[in-house]
Amino acid sequence: MPSRLAAYRRLLESAQGAGYAVVSIERLWALIESGEMDPAGRYLVLRHDIDTDPGTAGAMLAVEHSVGAQGSYFFRLSTLDLGLAGRITAAGSQVGYHYEELATVAKERRLRTAAEALRHLPEAQALFARNLERLRRQTGQALRVAASHGDFVNRSLGLPNWTLLTDPAFRREVGIDLETYDQAFMGHVTSRHSDTHYPRFWIPTGPAAAISAGEPVVYLLVHPRHWRVARLVNARDDVGRLVESLSYRRPTRADPLPGAG
Description:
Blueprint: H1 5-17, E1 20-23, H2 25-34, E2 42-50, H3 54-67, E3 72-75, H4 82-90, E4 94-99, H5 101-109, H6 114-119, H7 121-139, E5 145-148, H8 152-157, H9 168-174, E6 178-179, H10 183-186, E7 191-195, E8 202-203, H11 208-213, E9 217-222, H12 231-249
Parallel strand pairs: 1-2, 2-3, 2-9, 3-4, 4-5, 5-6, 7-9
Antiparallel strand pairs: 7-8
């Protein structure tokens, strides 16, 4: 597929032309908490999950900066780019953590059930706390908003990574003010859209109709790999996920033998 960055620019410009302020999650959350959210206003919320390809994330940042838009950029440990993180902050956008420690522990220990994973939740929380503190030191940012990453093992277990942050005491301990899936935030969203692969492009539908209809809060979740080709970067990630999947599914001593009752 050719680059879709021009289409991304047109999308942002069309929203602005329709009276939308293009804002980060952190900005809208601050307005919600302070009671300063304009009940007659229109907000387009930009969330970037950098699962792969920080290079394209940087290109998307340049597009946003050129039109006066802001967004939230969530890095995995594997995609952290300190130079890009600095440019994001300088542009007035926000840096956050795209965390996956529950999935990491489940894969390392080859946990097969939700019950097993929940028993290892303290281990995953401790790992999250260490990783978050390290990222704060590296980026120099507060990183008080976090976004759960979805992994194949989460789907297998039926447990999302945000299970780590359901305990309010743990949140206070690590200094997380908001998880992006919190109902306190998502309850204000009136139209939600996530990008996906060609030929569909958006799930459940594209945001153009919501913008035309004047939906008060339109939420866009975007991923760099859906907007510009980066074959080597994405192929490396695909292979890594395949290797992890094969390793996770390899039988363990605890698994029943084939044909066992």
